[in-house]
Amino acid sequence: MPIDESGLKAMAEELVGRVMADKASDDDLALVKQQLGRFPRGMVAVGARCVCGRPLAVVTRPVLPDGTPFPTTCYLTSPEATKAVSRVEADGSMRHYTDLVQNDETIHAQYERAHRLYLAFRHELAERLGDSEEHIAGTSAGGMPVRVKCLHALVAQTLVMGEGANPIGDMVMERIADEFAPNVCRCTTSLD
Ligand SMILES: [Zn+2]
Predict the structure, then answer these.
(1) Distance between CA 79 and CA 189 in Å, rounded?
(2) Domain residue limits at 120
(3) Could you tell me which of 41, 16, 58 has the C-alpha nearest to residue 156?
(4) Does 188 fall in a domain?
């Protein structure tokens, strides 16, 4: 499956435009701070929301305010999602997923495309924010494009960019659907 670079660029522009139009409110920042247990440094916007409106994943700028390069552009913040994904990681599925991306021709191509889309998304973000990509050029997240190292990063991409953006993210979402899904609110974080 050839990768259509101009198609990816158009998709990245559209995604970044949508994400940046959804400005994080003070409540969003306070919720994300509670979810992570720390202030979300370099957070640009909420990348995905639960049906209730609470943030599930955030988009982080390529360079943090203190100058640290930050390749994990899509970052999972939902504690419910994080817990469900950690369970999948702990049950030994990583080897299975890595085997798929290395040996299944279709999934291999989709995973390579997910990597390119991730880079195109961050490039668009870097251009709009005036951030340098010097230290993270070619680096995406989660082990892409050849391994599966962090399912949280892959699920975050699926949440921010939608179904079809990352084949492994899609598979994990399907697997954890009984515990976590963006259209079923199971949020426990509150501002009270
Ligand atoms: Zn919710």
Answers:
(1) 8
(2) 5-175
(3) 58
(4) no
By the 8 A CB rule, do 16 and 121 touch? yes
The alpha carbon of 153 and the centre of ligand 1 are apart by a number of angstroms equal to 20
Look at residue 3 and tell me whether its pLDDT is greater than 90: no
Q: Is residue 2 predicted with pLDDT exceeding 80? A: no
Q: Name the pLDDT band for 101 (thresholds 50, 70, 90).
A: very high
pLDDT of residue 158: 98
> How buried is residue 139: exposed, middle or buried, by Cβ count under 10 Å (0-12/13-18/19+)?
middle
Query: What's the CA-to-centroid distance between 18 and ligand 1, angstroms?
Result: 20
Q: What is the pLDDT of residue 143?
A: 95
Residue 187 lies in a domain: no
- Report pLDDT for 4: 84
Alpha carbon distance 164, 114 (integer Å):
9
Residue 6's CB: how many other CB atoms inside 10 A? 7
Does residue 190 sit within a domain?
A: no
- The total of structural domains in the chain comes to 1
The residue type of 142 is G
Please report whether residue 137 resides in a domain.
yes
User: Residue range 34-49: average pLDDT?
Assistant: 95
State in Å: Cα 78 to ligand 1 middle. Answer: 9
